[in-house]
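Here is a typical protein record:
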Amino acid sequence: MATVMQKIKDIEDEMSKTQKNKATAHHLGLLKAKLAKLRRELLTPTTKGGGGAGEGFDVTKSGDARVGLVGFPSVGKSTLLNKLTGTFSEVASYEFTTLTCIPGVIGYKGAKVQLLDLPGIIEGAKDGKGRGRQVISTARTCNVILIVLDAIKPITHKRLIEKELEGFGIRLNKTPPNMTFRKKEKGGINFTSTVANTHLDLDTVKAICSEYRIHNADISLRFDATADDLIDVIEGSRIYMPCIYVVNKIDQITVEELDILDKLPHYCPISAHLEWNLDGLLEMVWEYLDLVRIYTKPKGLNPDYEDPVILSTKRKTVEDFCNQIHKDMAKQFKYALVWGSSVKHKPQRVGKEHELEDEDVVQIIKKI
């Protein structure tokens, strides 16, 4: 482990000393590929037994979505969990009060959202310091990350935490690179692009692929990609996750300072202790979770508006709705009647592939 850590440090030192320009792009791309491979090796060791170093805390996933609180020690994560969920997580004025992962559940708009209070991250977490690997491994299982920052020093902490999460393969508020990468048996590296490239050329692409022992592949770009984008696609284990920067303790700063912070994207100001703007935070979490509520209507009865079926906007067909209720329902499915914004008529008869919208009402008609 120490040798891998040393190799990572040596590469990071060399990258910091190397000037960034066209002449060094090839060399830097190669170093980034080596670094990504070493990080993967560090976090998923090949030795058997003893539990992998990349494993998270053993917290059973429950509810309709999972939200993780990530931040440095003593920024108010435990207070926020206590206020939002009523779950007790020890709060104290000293650092590292929370030493394991504390789960709580928020009931919001008919959905049950699991909120995880993760132990405080320290610098170097991505390389295994503290309990960083466990914290960030669990963070990878979340649907949304809340990075909790102290209003007195938010930008410094923000950059450090982003660096730790990025090093662990979590990409915040980003979409997967618009790139096609396909290995093949022979023919060498075929590199094409529909746009002008300012970061990558054929030599750099070949060097990065060679580091991964890939000598035959078709790579097609539809945007101005960087070496990091190519490495992310080759690694294939990156998580693209929405993130909200929750700036806590705003009661300790001036209105002018708050105005400056207000220019940050994906930002929500709160005071967990004084319960300021917690409703605004919940509304923002709901928006970033991107969920839809579907109400069920048993035949001859009124719709059940108390207990909606919660679906992701990426998987919201009638078939997804059936599978969420019971795996056998799709097999017995004949057609569905739908009321709501996804249909023109009220009700409208639809099939399994019909896509539902938020607050639609659905009645399933089974085969006799």
User: Anything to note?
Assistant: The first strand starts at residue 65 and ends at 70. The CA atoms of residues 106 and 215 lie 50 Å apart.
